[in-house]
């Protein structure tokens, strides 16, 4: 049966970092509309730094939990901001979910989405409808739970989660922000996408594609 | 928009390096923490330590407010991004004189989370930490949601009050209470004529038409609460003063300290023109002015715009405001 | 380009009014001369008086340099226009303590003519006047025509040296000689990224392409000596430092004071980035730095750009530089 | 015979002030090219203030010399700059040339041009070829002297002087500045008109037109 190893973690983060680099200027633009225009730098910088740290520690005998803890602290220290603590919590929870092993069965991956969503909600006290990244992560976790209950294949579940996240992100356009920097704009925040939700949807899309690619690999 | 930059991603580290060189007698590095600095004449045994910090792009904020009578250490984030917990912890350790450490920073979700984590880490090491989150930006939320407001240029006054209290060797709870009081009596509002430009893209964070101005902006290139047609300097001042007076509700004979602050690209000539009208309005309300800071104290990259802060004084705050201090951005010998 | 202004023709008077209000404890009006101000702690019997002045648009120049240990009175012209003789005479009378008065101003035909006339008028009233014309802008004429050069941000150092000499009660000839020496050892050069805009028309004084910068600019929106492609901060610094070192020819171990000055719209973050490279270059040449001023000291309306000034110190100049002073734009307690 | 009175002086300055106001933005533009863009404000402000002062003192029994002295000090105090002292000297010399009377024969007017040119040269130590207002005033004075020697009519002489000034101003385009702010630009000053020479030519043109208008008046 297919597994997810510490080496796969490095590979996955390389993909996530590339995707965030590709989205950087779009995210900056979105954040300029209702925030401070730095969400692109934060996501690209944070995931880039985490990917490099994982790459450097690759082959050092780390468990998945250790790898994700390294990713969390690296991302946090590279970025700070709001994104840093939120994704650091998410990655620490993901590490706890995968545990002290250096490889796990592939079907543990949907649980990572659920764990990350929980980490973000716990750290930021955000709720769906606040117009934050929770509006992408929460439906994604919901879809993952539903997929697991239905006994779907891991890659398929991740794709469903990515779809749910994208829809959730798009729904933020109609929302008035209740948390984060955009909340200060009040009604002026309506009509704009939340950058954190958009980047979350992109991460989940990238995760699903990466898993699909693994499925196709020999 | 053109800037003097090397690689944008190096800008913050290069700024810190340049600041350490420019202010050799006042600022010192903290070993092992490149994004934290301490005051040369900072922590001393028995004194409450004052740690400030936040994102970069506000120069001379925050490192400009390190020194005797002001803060003891600073944690420095990326541009407009809260610093992570590690430099905040390093600053806390450097500021610690055994009497506890006071954290003061503006109310932004990132700063709150990162300082919170750092405070937990410091507490685990046996350092007592108290936190004051500044919320002086009256445009950023209604008065009944004061705790949701942003902390902006009023930081400068809150740092000063707290720094003076610490320098007078007052206990941690008292220093925190005074800082809280200063924050509660601090009212700021900003107006932008042009947004600042991102270091990465060189592009403005939002667009303003040639006849528009943006009212109630923050200090991260965020939009404000409303867009309006460009007005005269006097009318722009009135827009700000009306709201400040509305909230402050000064009694005849009350006194304030003023900060007329450039958000980056606005030159000092314009600040003086605004100050003239500001004083006319205050005089008409019977409000006296004890001290005025005017210049570039808390910026938002190269945003063209201004913020006005009024600190509603009482006798204790006045005495602390007049306490001497010696920092890169604020040096005073005593009474104004 | 947008500005906080009322009627452009009122800008200078409103600026003066705003400055008097902002700096109540430091600046005072001179009766009958609305365009002249005196220091509250200025002229005293037996002390040589120091009068400075020039056009407006350089805020905090010139009134920012009035105060104990600095200048005693200032004459204020229209934007970029020398003041007429009357306010210069009024400033001279206000600065007079019976020991003679020193006039210091930048080398521009208008300033020279108007100060000359005012000096004649003061002499006719029995006041001894000596004049020092500053010429620190190394880009504005070749070294063999030093006397033809403009006086720009180096003024700040020349004022400081002269002000300290006056405060130490040195005689007029000595004060003038020290100011002359400071000027001779002062080297400034500026680079602009964007010209400032006229108050009347809101239009820039000249046009720069999006990839151009202008090298060797003055402080009145004048063009410089050459246009070049926009470079990195480090390369821009090198362009300036190369020329300064070339003229200054410091020996290993020599010391300088630095002024890294925004010409208006350039924010302090960029100044610190430039300062980092500046110090790398000086270190490589074995030059020590005694003190750095960094910020908005001598502007050109809202020009985006920077000037760097190096004052080549000797023991006497160092002591005078370290002398305490207390003025709106420069307050220091003693040694750096 | 036609005369030039203290009242005419007021009227003439009103014309000069209007002309400078009309030229203000053009002069600002020229001064922006090789100076500091304030020559328009200086000329319009200076002559405007002088005209108002003359108007206010009109009917107060002033002589022409007193009127021109008032104009000189008013202009100087309104303007400062380079223009202030130069035109103040020019106007003081003009007053000396017209003398302590409240009206003079009209044919004394060409002498005013000569006096003003002398005042400017004496105060500024400028010479033709420096690329300054001297390059307009000096040929104008030369033309006035020639016209007087040839016994021409005053208005005609003033028109010749204005022509000469205009040509002189246009010739500044090819010059490299040797005095004033533009001198710091060295060779970069070549190819631009000198604003001070252009405003001088406009003043002289206005003077000639005013004199012509007087000739036509009943
Ligand atoms: N309390 C919160 N919980 C979850 N997400 C949040 C919270 N506050 C803000 N966010 C998310 O953070 C995003 C902004 O991130 P970023 O731009 O990196 O940080 P900052 O706002 O500090 O500049 C927002 O778009 C929003 O999705
Ligand atoms: N020494 C001088 N003699 C005669 N004219 C001069 C002299 N210096 C400058 N000018 C004239 O002054 C003009 C500039 O005047 P203005 O812009 O009002 O003053 P400033 O140069 O002080 O800003 C120049 O165009 C030139 O014609
Ligand atoms: Mg952001
Ligand atoms: Mg941010
Ligand atoms: Mg001028
Ligand atoms: Mg000019």
Automatic annotation (TrEMBL), chains A, D:
<dbReference type="InterPro" id="IPR050861">
    <property type="entry name" value="Dihydroxyacetone_Kinase"/>
</dbReference>
<dbReference type="InterPro" id="IPR012737">
    <property type="entry name" value="DhaK_L_YcgS"/>
</dbReference>
<keyword id="KW-0808">Transferase</keyword>
<dbReference type="GO" id="GO:0004371">
    <property type="term" value="F:glycerone kinase activity"/>
</dbReference>
<feature type="domain" description="DhaL">
    <location>
        <begin position="7"/>
        <end position="209"/>
    </location>
</feature>
<dbReference type="InterPro" id="IPR036117">
    <property type="entry name" value="DhaL_dom_sf"/>
</dbReference>
<protein>
    <submittedName>
        <fullName>Dihydroxyacetone kinase subunit L</fullName>
    </submittedName>
</protein>
<dbReference type="Pfam" id="PF02734">
    <property type="entry name" value="Dak2"/>
</dbReference>
<dbReference type="GO" id="GO:0005829">
    <property type="term" value="C:cytosol"/>
</dbReference>
<dbReference type="GO" id="GO:0019563">
    <property type="term" value="P:glycerol catabolic process"/>
</dbReference>
<keyword id="KW-0418">Kinase</keyword>
<dbReference type="InterPro" id="IPR004007">
    <property type="entry name" value="DhaL_dom"/>
</dbReference>
